[in-house]
Design a protein that fits this description.
By secondary structure, the protein is mainly beta. It has one helix spanning 18-25; strands at 2-5, 8-11, 32-36, 39-41, 56-61. The chain has a five-stranded mixed sheet with strand order 2-1-5-3-4, with helices on one face. The longest helix has 8 residues, at 18-25. The chain is globular and about 35 Å long. The relative contact order is 0.32. The model has no long low-confidence stretch (mean pLDDT 93).
Length: 66
Amino acid sequence: MKVIVNGEPRELPEGVSVAEAVASVTGAGTGVAAALNDEVVRRSAWDTTTLRDADRLEVLTAVQGG
């Protein structure tokens, strides 16, 4: 299936979870947030929230700096 991850089209297998998609984008264990179709997905729901064809996922990581 085709989904948009951080504005880029990606082919992902059917039934992939938000957690799996996030892991494909970043290896960061903390400071990461995900929004699916403009709605924030709580981290506790990442494993049970599956992506569907044409979904839009934004993966955001906190960056330190000044």
